[in-house]
Protein: Probable GTP-binding protein EngB
Amino acid sequence: MPIFQNASFYTTVNHLKDLPPTRAEVAFVGRSNAGKSSAINTLTNRTRLAYVSKTPGRTQHINFFDLGSERYLVDLPGYGFAQVPEAVRAHWVQLLGRYLQTRESLVGLIQIMDIRHPLKELDWKMLHFFIETNRPVHIMLSKADKLSRQEQAKALKEVKEKLSAYPQISIQLFSSLKKSGCETVEQIVEKWFAQ
Ligand code: GDP
Structure:
């Protein structure tokens, strides 16, 4: 059974101090609109487990989904949401940074980037927060269906080149629309949990 298939809603928190204790968790992070909710819904085979919602108030929530066997999927708030004040955006980035740098049970980070706009400034910031801790990152270049095969390969190669200095980062193509790329991320996360 693929790792995400039995996911069920566990809890939502608004503050880091309220994070539940877990033994092992994998977190999904990405710029607002990158396709994170769609990716979670596709991987869990549920239509609305993660809301595909654009309401700024909602995006501050940290949602936990129970994967069974004391493992959890964590849906982090999207960053870079344009329609909120700069101070609020800065606060979210800080909150994400603290979570990424200090959460002991976090075994690895899944970062979602729109294949047409990868490695924006805030994406780098998140990467740096987390790779300092020496844990692995897996990047899903989402909405791959928006590009031709040739363009997809080119985009993948470019991102790989830009991140070649970081052996702990792996990268793949993904499309929620085509449901393609699920096995790759499932295998990576299974490996993280098994370690
Ligand atoms: P989030 O803000 O990162 O959670 O992004 P969403 O999952 O809400 O997706 C943002 C927009 O991109 C929505 O309009 C989705 O329908 C669209 N989208 C997400 N994934 C894909 C994909 O794989 N292919 C295409 N063509 N569109 C997608």
Observations:
- The mean pLDDT is 92.
